[in-house]
Design brief:
With 483 residues, the protein is mainly alpha-helical. Helix content is 49%, strand content 5%.
Length: 483
Amino acid sequence: INSLLTMTPFRFSIGGLVFSGVAIAAAITSVDAFAPASSIVRSASSSSTLLYNRQARRQNKKKKVRSAPSFVVDEEEDDAPSNSSTTKNSKSSEPILLGGGEIGFSSEVPESKIPVAKATSANTPPKASKLDQELEGKRIEEDGIVGESVTSAASVSDMPVASGQQQPDVSTVITDPETGIARIQQGKYVMDKVTGKAVVLSSLGPEYRLAQMFPGVPPDTRQKHRFDWSTVTVPEMVQRLRDACTVPLKNSQTGEEWLGIPPHPQISNPAVDFVLANRDYLGHRMKKTLGRLKLRAQSQFQKEEALQYRTLWKHFLLLEDHISAPFRQILLNAEAKIGPNFGNLDMKSYCGGELYERTASYLVLKSMVAHWEKKYADSQKLESIPDDDSYFLQQLYTGDPKRYLPDPPIIFRLDEVSRIVVMAQKMCQSFVETPELFDDLPPEVRFVESALGIKGGTALRQFMLEEFCPRNNVDSVSLREGL
């Protein structure tokens, strides 16, 4: 007792958490002087219930929520006392330690909980394999996860549509009834975050829709807002972006007026013009910059500055989403045409149409090739990694981690991926070799096809300056900005 009372504070390392059975027994014997034996010494089964009663309550809550008709999550507190029936019914779902015998774990290992495929009954039609679903251009059907298709990757953050439920018009945030986590339910159309409604493409003609796809500003507006890249600094870029987003604001109730960033999700035309005039300098890099500045201010305990950066960051993300919404909608339309026709090399039968439609079709095809070539390279690397414990981490970070799910909603084995990537390459090549589809696409888009086949920066610059730009009557500066 004296030794325990005079014990100095200490810290555990990760390795220090592994005790021998003798050390645990000694600790229990010492603590016995401070508490009744009935509250300390327990059998292995009761200790298991004590350690894992929180998970048992969560499992019980899940069962209650599944039977509920709405998407309301049970708000019962985690630390609420559980009754004996709940504890008894949850013993079968308690986690175990393979090998058993330690205090708090069951000494017997039950049958594996990983589901095993069962034979299809005579009355149930056989379900198509994942590869067959991919080759038909469909999404792989899995419970609880939106599987991948040939034109779109799988995402565990997307909420699948429940049986009997219709797909929403626009993407909607839904609370998962099993986990209580907010997930996105993919809609039929892309939502404009400013209006909260589906994107509306121009009814004035295909030329206007192409302008929506690749928006720009008049020359005088561009000259007014354009950065001088030879002298501009990052702090100056951030300040000019803040100035462009700042507009006069007024409180309708009190009449107070001030300058500031519009409340979400409102935007101003000067901010849109500024972003469009410098979009090749902003984009993804400015998103990361604003996020880092905000976190830096937080780490220095500068709350007001961090809040200002957070407001500007959120507003810039809104501007980017609003500007790119028509582009994403047009590509979504192209995916809907290409996916069901995967494997059909008669490209004119479903990839024809106006210039903006054919441009979107090429971008989807090229992205599809890039996606599956990456998966093919990952599959090859996984095949070459030795199946040894010393290579465990290398296996873990190679390829799509969704392959570790119990029933993966993706294609990842080399023999299956190779069939898809070969067909994707054939489809893209067939599109490029059809003059009616490819030859009149915007120069920036056609340059992508040529540039991706050239190795080395020097050879690429030489091709751009000496061949591509003179042949297409475009200067190199405009080509870079367009790309």
